[in-house]
What we know:
Layout: H1 2-13, H2 18-52, H3 63-67
Helix pairs in contact: 1-2
Amino acid sequence: MDRLxxxxxxxxxxxxxxxxSLAMFEEGVRLSRAGAKRLDEAERRVxxxxxAGDELQTSxxxxxxxxxx
Length: 69
């Protein structure tokens, strides 16, 4: 999230050359999609926990989920 905010701030400044702006935009899109995926997965897990009612079971985050940003 921090990196995405940095990318957006740099793009908003408008001082970058075109090629660098495009590279930053691509990185921002990639980071945004990764963040959306993590939020979707978290929402799915919350829904599963709520649906389980009294039979709450937790599972550890997968290594890729725990370490991605």
